[in-house]
Specification:
Structural class: alpha/beta
Distance between the termini: 51 Å
Order of helices and strands: EHEHEHEHEHEHHEHEHEEHHHHH
CATH architecture of the largest domain: 3-Layer(aba) Sandwich
CATH superfamily of the largest domain: Periplasmic binding protein-like II
Number of strands: 10
CATH class of the largest domain: Alpha Beta
Helix content: 25-40%
CATH topology of the largest domain: D-Maltodextrin-Binding Protein, domain 2
Strand content: 5-15%
Number of helices: 14
């Protein structure tokens, strides 16, 4: 059986090797918002357990011959699952890469390749839907939707999973070499206040206005979805004080962190966990700060574009990925939590119980999840540009 074809249609960024999904997410200005169900409109079509009635007219039940054309972030699905899907359902999976949500949406809007499945971030789902680029999901073709954890049937950007299904989620925060920071701060504000004292160390923060700036707002007990200039001026003051100590603003950091070449940084928990595993083999311990009071998490979502030629095959793919064993091996491969009930029994304990990855539900419940809005994007981009200059 042949491996899935992979093409890259957009720049992957700088640095050696392919840019992973988490390395690319910093590209482009995006914002955060609280859970605003009204933003997506309508009542949920899903029950507490994730089951729902069909949300669109029948598209048939026979899986098309394919190939199944997928647009995804690089190295963001266990390659074994492409082969397993083909063996079970027939269509060969062809994967094309992209470097940002904006690039994906631009290609969908321009009527380019008729993708059957794509993976936008949750905050972009309302934009994709409003532009008529998403096919409503037929829940009758997704019996495994019952396996999705209830929390993710009520995502602010798509309550009831009308157009999207959560693929996985992660957290953004500070990481550090334990020998460099033996007594790490226990608050977000403490981390920002520590950075100026670490001048001379190697400090890397990820690119993008939605990352460091949102953490600065949270550190000051301000709304990370704020659109008030006064809030951003306060955040800028905190960030500007730390700026002289920051040596790099780069979203490609896994390899460097794994070698021990970064002392402190802002990054994504799954990527940091992967780097920490490599660093440990070199005798270097990496820590990750999990805020206990306020933080934010992001999700990536399976979505079927309106122009796709193989919608039944696309539903079959998503339903396949909702199987507990498949979800568990995905989590093992990527290092990000796949919110499917029963998946953890197929995840090695070292991954399932890793405190960087296994964020307790009561802690995660205190976090905000992101939604993209033009007003929020504009103000965060404005102040982030000032910070970068």
């Amino acid at each position: 059986m042949q491996d899935p074809e992979f093409k890259v249609l957009a720049p992957r960024g700088s640095g050696p090797g392919p840019m992973t999904r988490r390395q690319a997410i910093g590209v482009g200005g995006v914002g955060l918002a609280s859970l605003l169900l009204a933003a997506c409109g309508g009542k949920s079509g899903a029950s507490a357990g994730g089951a729902a009635a069909s949300t669109t007219k029948s598209i048939g039940t026979k899986v098309e011959a394919g190939p199944l054309l997928m647009a995804n972030w690089a190295d963001y699905v266990d390659p074994a699952h492409y082969k397993a899907y083909q063996a079970r359902f027939g269509p060969k999976v062809q994967v094309e890469g992209y470097g940002s949500n904006d690039e994906l949406i631009a290609k969908l809007s321009a009527g380019g390749s008729a993708y059957d499945v794509v993976v936008p971030s949750g905050r972009y789902i309302p934009e994709v839907v409003q532009k008529g680029l998403a096919r409503p999901l037929d829940h009758s073709l997704l019996p495994n939707l019952k396996n999705l954890e209830p929390k993710f049937t009520q995502n602010a950007w798509d309550p009831g999973n009308k157009h999207s299904i959560t693929k996985n989620f992660g957290v953004t925060s500070f990481y550090y070499r334990k020998d460099v920071v033996p007594q790490p701060p226990d608050t977000m504000l403490g981390w920002w206040q520590l950075l100026p004292k670490l001048k001379g160390k190697t400090i890397n923060i990820i690119e993008g206005s939605s990352s460091a700036m949102s953490l600065a707002l949270l550190a000051l007990d301000l709304d990370p979805s704020s659109t008030k200039d006064a809030d951003y001026k306060a955040a800028m003051k905190l960030m500007t004080a730390a700026k002289p100590a920051i040596t790099n603003i780069n979203s490609t950091y896994i390899d460097r962190l794994g070698r021990g070449d970064i002392d402190v940084g802002i990054g994504w928990n799954g990527d940091v966990a992967r780097a920490a595993e490599t660093a440990k083999k070199k005798g270097i311990e990496i820590g990750f700060f999990v805020p206990q009071d306020r933080g934010f998490y992001w999700t990536d979502e399976w979505l079927i574009p309106a122009a796709g030629k193989n919608p039944v095959a696309a539903h079959a793919w998503i339903n396949f990925m909702l199987e507990p064993k498949i979800a568990g091996t995905e989590q093992d491969y990527m290092g990000y939590v796949v919110p499917v009930n029963g998946a953890l029994q197929f995840v090695p304990p070292a991954i399932a119980k890793n405190p960087m990855i296994a964020i307790p539900d009561d802690v995660l419940a205190k976090y905000s999840s992101p939604i993209n809005t033009p007003e929020l994007t504009a103000i965060q981009s404005k102040y982030y540009s000032l910070f970068r200059s």
